[in-house]
Amino acid sequence: MPILADQPHDRARQADKIVKNPANYKICQGCDSIVLIKTHTCPNCASYRFEEGEEAVVRQARILGNRERRSVIPGDLS
After folding, report:
1. How far apart are CA 78 and CA 67, in angstroms?
2. Which residues of 59-78 are buried (b: 16+ CB within 10 A; e: fewer)?
3. pLDDT tens per residue across span 19-37
4. How far is CA 50 from the centre of its chain?
5. What's the pLDDT band for 40 if we cut at 50, 70, 90?
6. How open is the CA angle 51-12-61, to the nearest 5 degrees?
7. Which of 78, 72, 77 is nearest to 32 (CA)?
8. 17 within a domain of the structure (yes/no)
9. In a domain, 77, yes or no
10. What range does the domain containing 28 cover?
11. Does residue 50 lie in a domain region?
């Protein structure tokens, strides 16, 4: 399940949640989305390669939490 938030305050709140518990998340190497650790394929781009390092997850969460969403997600295509 991808981590989704469209509003800046929602993204910052979600990023804070990830930063506090990075062991529950990983980064898709295909699209840089943060997904739950139990995810097998990225729901955004179907990649199956992930970065699971906690420091990388924290770094990516801070980046994503401080900018607007740029990626296209499946819901955008409906």
Report:
1. 24
2. ebbeebbeeebeeeeeeeee
3. 999 999 999 999 999 999 9
4. 11
5. very high
6. 10
7. 72
8. yes
9. no
10. 8-67
11. yes
- The reply to whether 75 falls in a domain is no
- Rounded Cα gap, residues 66 and 34, in angstroms: 14
CA distance 58 to 77: 29
Give per-residue pLDDT as tens, 55-78: 999 999 999 888 776 665 666 566
How many domains does the chain contain in total? 1
CA distances from 28 to 9, 41, 75, 78 (A): 23, 9, 18, 23
Q: What are phi and psi of 3, to 5 degrees?
A: -95, 115
Distance CA 41, CA 55 (A): 21
Q: Measured between alpha carbons, how far is 57 from 18 in angstroms, rounded to an integer? A: 8
| Residue 3 tokens, joined | 């981590």
